[in-house]
Amino acid sequence: MRLKNLFVAGLLVWLPLTITIWVLWQLLSVFDGIFRAVIGALDAVAPSLQPLLDNLARTPGLGVVVVVAAILLTGLLVANFVGQWWLRQWDSVIARIPIVKSIYSSVKQVSDTLFSSNGNAFRQAVMVQYPRSGSWTIAFVTGQPGGEVARHLPGEHISVYVPTTPNPTSGFFLMVPRAEVVELSMSVDEALKYVISMGVVAPLPPSAQAPSR
Fold first, then answer.
1. What is the pLDDT of residues 154-199, one digit of tens each?
2. How far apart are CA 64 and CA 38, in angstroms?
3. What predicted TM-score, i.e. pTM, was given to this entire model?
4. What is the DSSP letter of 11?
5. C-alpha to C-alpha distance for 205 and 213, rounded to whole angstroms
6. Integer CA distances (angstroms), 135 to 26, 116, 121, 125, 131, in order
7. I need a labelling partner for 171 at 20 to 30 A (CA). Which of 38, 61, 179, 193 fits?
8. Which sign does the torsion angle of CA 83, 86, 88, 91 carry?
């Protein structure tokens, strides 16, 4: 029994660290893959630069730095009137390409909704009854039903995303009556921790979060 307790104690130290390192490693691998794809394209266009490009591709961590810098530079360029004009021209060109325009417009609409500072998507955690009446789970508000769907729904409804446990990147999209939704005061981060931990890491009530002085 003593050996088991020691093993569990050691596991509780290494498991979070290992998972954190694995997630960061996967993210770095994605960035490095993008960098290598750009290097490969430049190599095909300018074969004379192959020795230099090979040295750059073998530099550890350079891909991450270049990709992050490119993202920041792009954000800087489109944060003004001229950049917005060029972005509209780019969207116009993409909109003329069959198949590509459908994928691009769908992804762009979702990303604009999720990451816009003016949007309400994933800004609030709620409780809904799912998968049956009397069973409750945590969900995140993504907006309100619109278009033809809204016309078929009686009364006021909201759109929610119900994440799965322990992987919140997959889940279910539901449209539920607003009257049946329980709003939570916990933050989205706290709700995600609660979902990922399968209810083990419960957020403190609002009265207990701020220490008394």
1. 999 999 999 988 777 788 999 999 999 999 998 888 998 888 888 8
2. 12
3. 0.56
4. H
5. 18
6. 35, 32, 24, 17, 7
7. 179
8. negative
26 closest CA partner among 38, 37, 18, 15:
18
CA triple 29-19-199, angle to 5 deg: 135
Q: Can you tell me which residue has the tokens 């409780």?
A: 127
Angle at the Cα of 106 from the Cα atoms of 140 and 26, rounded to 5 degrees: 70
Compute the half-sphere exposure of residue 76: CA atoms within 13 Å on the CB side of its CA: 6
Residue 57: CA count within 13 A, CB half-sphere: 16
Structure tokens at 64: 């991450």
Calpha distance 162→126 (Å, rounded): 10
What is the rounded CA–CA span in Å between residue 197 and residue 213? 31
Q: What are phi and psi of 203, to 5 degrees?
A: -65, 150
CB-CB contact of 125 with 195 (8 Å): no
**Could you say which DSSP state residue 186 is in?**
S
Q: Token pair of 193, please? A: 């921790």
